[in-house]
Amino acid sequence: MEANKIFYEIEILSDKKILVKDNQHKYQVLLSDRLMEFAANTISFLYTLPIYREFDVFRNQLSRSATSIGANYEESQASSYPEFKQRIQICLREAREANYWIRLLLKLINENIKLNRTFKGKSTDNLHKLQKESSEIVLIFGAISSKINKKLKQTSSSK
After folding, report:
1. What is the pTM of this model?
2. How far apart are CA 35 and CA 29, in angstroms?
3. More confident call, 76 vs 11
4. Contact, 156 vs 148, CB < 8 A?
């Protein structure tokens, strides 16, 4: 294990709330708060996109997928266990989609000098932060999904 690499521990609390902790014990937050922050930061970033028709797809798709993660997670909190599992799967799909749109924007900015000049410093830094956060959210929901599947297998094998 690399010394400076951060790993996340997922704890599903009794009320289905999910606590996310890192292996260095520097970070502990309720997932709902983290998802709200990600959605807000994504929407704030979208305000910085140039007003060209070509960017409409990013504004629409990225705003939908980034906000859908938290909305589906919130809905999962008032669900039966099978519905909870289904909502977590939707969160994972939406997180992967948001990550895709962010990576595509980064690719376009990196490969287009004119576009790169349009996105000066802070906007590009914010986009890199969103890419890192969306990647971590994908990993978190992957871990949650895996944990749910293990729990369901244990439950079905004990019957």
Report:
1. 0.81
2. 10
3. 76
4. no
